[in-house]
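BUG-884 | component: ligand-complex export | severity: low

The export step for magnesium ion jobs runs without errors, but we want the raw record kept on the ticket for reference. Input record follows.
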Amino acid sequence: MKRNNTSKYVSFGLIIAAYAIMMILSSTGKITRSMQGMLVPICAYIVMAISLNLTVGILGELSLGHAGFMSMGAFTGTCAAIIMTESVTNTGLRLGLSMVIGAIFGGIAGFLIGIPVLRLKGDYLAIVTLAFGEIIKSIFNNLYLGFDKYGLHLQLLSEKGIKLEESGRMLIQGAMGISKIKKISTFTAGFILIILTLFIVYHLVESRYGRAIMAIRDNRIAAESVGVDVTKYKMTAFVISAAMAGAAGALFAQNYSTITANKFDFNTSILILVLVVLGGLGNITGSIISATLLTILPEALRGFATYRMLVYAIVLIVVMLFTNASGTKIMIDKIKAKFGGNKEEEGL
Amino acid sequence: MAYKSDGSNLVPVPSNAVIPERDINDMPALECKNLGITFGGLHAVENFNLTIGRTEIAGLIGPNGAGKTTVFNLLTNVYQPTTGTILLNGMDTHGMSTAQVSKAGIGRTFQNIRLFNNLTVEENIMVAMDNSMKYGLFDGLLRLPGYFREEKKAHEKALELLHIFEMENVASHQAGSLPYGAQRRVEIVRALATNPKVLLLDEPAAGMNPSETADLMANIRKIRDTFQIAVVLIEHDMNLVMNVCEGLCVLNFGRIIAKGSPAEIQKNPTVIEAYLGKSHKEGEKQMSTILKVDDINVYYGSIHAIKGISFHVEEGEIVTLIGANGAGKSTTLNTISGLLRSRTGSITLNDKPIDHIPPHKVVEHGLAMCPEGRRIFLQMTVEENLEMGAFTVKDINMDAEKERVFDLFPRLKERRNQIGGTLSGGEQQMLAMGRALMSKPHLMMMDEPSMGLAPILVEQIFDIINSLHKEGTTILLVEQNAQAALSIADRGYVLETGKIVAEGTGAELLASPVIKRAYLGGEREEEPDKEGAYYF
Ligand SMILES: Nc1ncnc2c1ncn2[C@@H]1O[C@H](COP(=O)(O)OP(=O)(O)OP(=O)(O)O)[C@@H](O)[C@H]1O
Ligand SMILES: [Mg+2]
């Protein structure tokens, strides 16, 4: 309870400070174009990492298809935004609504997957989410969706059957995905989404729901023995996690003019998992930092040209070793003891 | 518990035994009828009939592997019984989930402690109150007034429950970091937080020292009196069982072999033969330093756990480290085996320094460790577990070593193909010892080998320690059961908060009044009517 607080304030502090600095820099024009372009993806990946941390670090279930939920949110949210182009002219509001819709669809997908899997004991979730990620990708790659004044027209495999009225337009065109997206995502929207995500996760963790969820992670049998309804709490955590990924997907997609299903493949799921593991399981602040650094890193390594991915991999391994080495742990413990020492006492 | 006492010949009681008078008006809290379960071909529990009164304290005792824990698992629907019914306050619990059984009124603790290790003590307890907390997900996420009200209520209730064991001061500590005894107490408090009508305690005193056990006894009674609930406990500590329980039920090979009052059970020849046992023998010795520990200091983060300890173990000796929970005994062993590092000093084994080599290399130097809390490989079979013990040792005849271990522990031979995790607590302990023996160690370190063992097995274990000793194995023994340890040890060291406060031969330490009071619970030993009835 109290012990979470330090990390909580650090998380909020980091995000707010980063936002403030970036806003000042960009208003004085001191920020490069490529950095500017990365702001929204960074926000989206931070939300992805925090939400996956909820499943992996806090609930203790391995999920290998987190990009699938992002994809779900990206496609449904963006489609909704296109449909609302005329009815909701305020872009900020439209973006907000599209993220809500992305979240709802992400949550529904999470719920549907959760029903068969979360009642099972063991690592089935990993397998099923992996399959889910691939299935979602195939579906969106073969889905054709048009929209006109008569409503939505949906067709699988080819767009031949879709005859649109002249004011209508195609939304999803199979493997070509959604094109001509209005780039309405902003850094501020990303910032707000992160803050909301943090609120939800921290409030969840500090409520009876979060306690039960962590209890299940620590010892399922004991949790059952004190009357915790394991399936219900697992589902709660998993659906919230999927919904947050959906919202992040909607934000992410509308930062580009085109979005395709292949952007959210297995590699993306693994990348998000790497963010979580690198930042530390259950460590929200860690997720924020690793998501930021690992999104910037490939850009920063452009100088290495062909060797970029190699250097990237080496950096990953080094960081991994460094944060896990017992020497570093002792050092970190010492630092914590120095700064956190007094807090411990006020604990009760 | 239903038992009939017609003089001294009370053994096997008919299954529909009478409920003692004080409960006759009341419906019993718990009733088992013809309960049974088989695993593969093994009848782990068979024809189990038991009635527990509303405010009764009953004991379930019996040798290791008798099926006691299995009974608890049946009562809480962790296993579905093959036969029979369970009535909780007259309600059939058949088909309920474990969580539903908990809501219906059964609270339990576990033989191998199962706390939510990463949560604080208070959070552990609040998890158990979850069903009585009345706020929804959105109240929690949006921090509506209901959230604060209910959280505050739960917080106060948690502290109130912790007060039973005067543990309010550790409420904000991480549960997994508490010493063993404290963890057991937290488990009891957590079970109480579910508002049970029946409290099941699986070896609550295992790993506690005599003075902690004495407190526990008083507290079990206090819990029954304040909450007016029934308590069923599994325990191998006969002092506790005989003092607290009003009725006893003895299991052997899955069947009830006796029911009755503690006094009756103590005199029952069948029970004495199957379970209680009589006494044990002595060993002898020779010399040359095997292990030398010189001025070690160990820290956990900023906590100074071991403060300059030095001691030595000579060839062929049994040396014991005794001391209260948290005194640093296990830390010392873990430092010797290389799992923890000392900041100063040195550790040598056969004159070779071992304080800077990794744990698996330490094993190659001839040191084997039999860890506390039976850390066996839960997913592997008994045989595979044994093989792991000799894994890093070259030039070893695996089969011969296995046979040697099987000779020492015939029980393991019978179960050679069973998965480690499904062994009973006592069987797991035997396996942990057997595994350590597989590497033919020069020095064998044992952390609490008698924890959670039936008296007859404690005796056997100490016999085995003695025969190993005769074979020439040198032993460093850490024990909560200080009396038993000192009586077989050549020498002993007494640890208190990370320092050695006394040393001497086993006999000297046993006789020392200070030691007697602090670690042996001296006074209670002298109760005349219990003499000889149980070991130690
Ligand atoms: N899931 C299982 N599969 C197979 N065998 C099992 C299983 N659970 C228990 N057993 C066996 O059933 C027997 C009874 O085990 P149980 O754990 O109830 O013993 P216990 O009386 O509690 O012993 P102890 O005092 O050593 O803890 C043991 O021989 C054990 O190996
Ligand atoms: Mg048991």
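Assignee comment: Attached the raw record above. Chain B is about 35% helix and 25% strand.
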